[in-house]
Amino acid sequence: MEQLNFTFPALDPASGRALAGVVGSGDLEVLAEPGAAGTTTVSVTTSVTGMGRVWEAVLTRVLAATPLPATKIEINDFGATPGVVRMRIEQAFEELTGSGREA
């Protein structure tokens, strides 16, 4: 297992908590809760080692594209593709904000 940590700029804290996905073969779960104002932190636990640059690229594309609520995100990965990662993060933010977002 590999543990990765990332930080991104954000807006005011999110107002609630969210869960998207489940850990299982080829999938992942995203747990989100309010974070410190101005910062989103992401903690990734993954079964696939050596993919830190890929995770950074995917998370930067999703989380740095537009301002989002400050959130503490925990991702538990079991070999998900970048497309699934993006979809699960967007699902979590949709649940947090009550609306979808274009990313």
Helix content percent band = 25-40%
What Rg do the Cα atoms give? Answer: 12 Å
- Largest β sheet strand count, sense and barrel closure: 5 strands, mixed
Number of strands: 5
Walk across the major sheet and give the strand order. Answer: 1-4-5-3-2
Alpha carbon gap, first and last residue: 29 Å
Query: What structural class do the secondary elements suggest?
Result: alpha+beta
How do the strands and helices of this protein lay out in sequence?
Blueprint: E1 2-9, E2 18-21, E3 28-34, E4 39-46, H1 52-63, E5 71-77, H2 82-97
Parallel strand pairs: 4-5
Antiparallel strand pairs: 1-4, 2-3, 3-5
Helix pairs in contact: 1-2
What does this structure look like?
By secondary structure, the chain is α+β, with helices and mostly antiparallel strands. The chain has one domain (2-97). The protein is 27% helix and 33% strand. It has 2 helices and 5 strands, in the order ββββαβα. It has helices at residues 52-63, 82-97; strands at residues 2-9, 18-21, 28-34, 39-46, 71-77. Strands 1-4-5-3-2 form a 5-stranded mixed beta sheet, with helices on one face. α1 packs parallel to α2.
Features:
single chain, 103 residues, alpha+beta, 5-stranded mixed sheet, 2 helices, 5 strands, globular
